[in-house]
Fold:
Amino acid sequence: MTLLLNLSRQGVGRTENRDASGSAHNSGACLYVIADGTSKPGSGDLARALIHHVLECFSRAESSVASCPDNALKLTLDSLNAVHSNLCSDFPFASTSYLALLVVGQSMVSIHAGDCCLGYLDKDQRTIWLSAPHCGPNWKGDLSHSFIANSPARKRLLNCMSGRRPHEPHVQPLQASIERTWVLATDGFWAELSAEHQAGAIREQTLHGYATDDDATVMLLRT
Structure:
């Protein structure tokens, strides 16, 4: 897995960028994580703390753990549960969406809670989104991203990382052997930019000229 691009831009009128992202490598395995803090106090700090803790745990793991798909997945889930159990209390009003992509050999799995989403580029360089956002009207998980993007209820999270909620991430196995360009994005990217502007930002490798009200972050990976 190769990291091609990692872009983030603060939303118009925002006092800080509450998005965070990062990656870690261990014994040939890779872990990529993005997080999107909500507008509640301390949410940007929680997003950054989540990223730091999960990547630190992965990078420090024994080789026998990181190089085994099942063990690496358990490690990642345990580190996320530790954020919920131990770190969320430091940010009692905060909440954040997150998406983690774990790649171990030909095994790949995504873990997400909230409205950060995973997709891949098709032959026309448009993103085919795979993750069902845990927000607004999408309680069944069957609505298109374009429909959700236009919904007035989009900002109401149905699932996220927060000390006031149980931690119930969605785990989705994927096929890493397929040659694809994968896209990890916060909702400022997939919901506030049109498909044409998403493709333009990826093609130009910049978010300058693509302003959004919300913070926007996008990572591109190549298998």
